[in-house]
Known about the structure:
The chain is α+β, with helices and mostly antiparallel strands. It has helices at residues 25-36, 80-93, 115-124; strands at 9-12, 20-24, 43-54, 57-67, 98-105, 130-136, 141-148, 151-155, 158-159. The chain is built from three helices and nine strands, in the order ββαββαβαββββ.
Amino acid sequence: MENKFPKNVRQIGNVSDTPKIYVEDYVDTFLNQICDKADKEQAGAFLVGKKEVTEGQECLYIFGAICMEFSGDENEIISQENFEKAEQEKKEYFEDGTMIGWMLCRPGVRMVIDTKIFNTHEKYFSEKNTIFILKDNAEVEEQYYCYKYKELMQIGGHYV
């Protein structure tokens, strides 16, 4: 059965990029609300969605997000306990979805992928075509990354 395409989405990436990434509008709004509340502290969310092949194209549909709790440990961003708690919430609220990535908002911190971010992504989202979103609400900036070829590759372009 073909997935019914949501009406209010943002397509992330250039037209020729693969996979095609679609973020439902209310998810984008929710992620922005999380960042707006993060004045000085980092904030984050887990991304929930589906990976599908539509008309021969690999597609990611992000239709949910779960607020992230941080471990409090300076050496890690996400603890195993916090990840498992988010998995339980996903089962309760988004039973048809899978965890396909995460978002991190770091106010006032340079928008670069550091070792801690990369290692966190590899630990929890090492599957091909998982997503990482880096946001800075102070600068109203965001960058999308897709995990391919054992790298987090930046994706350019946004379409509404």
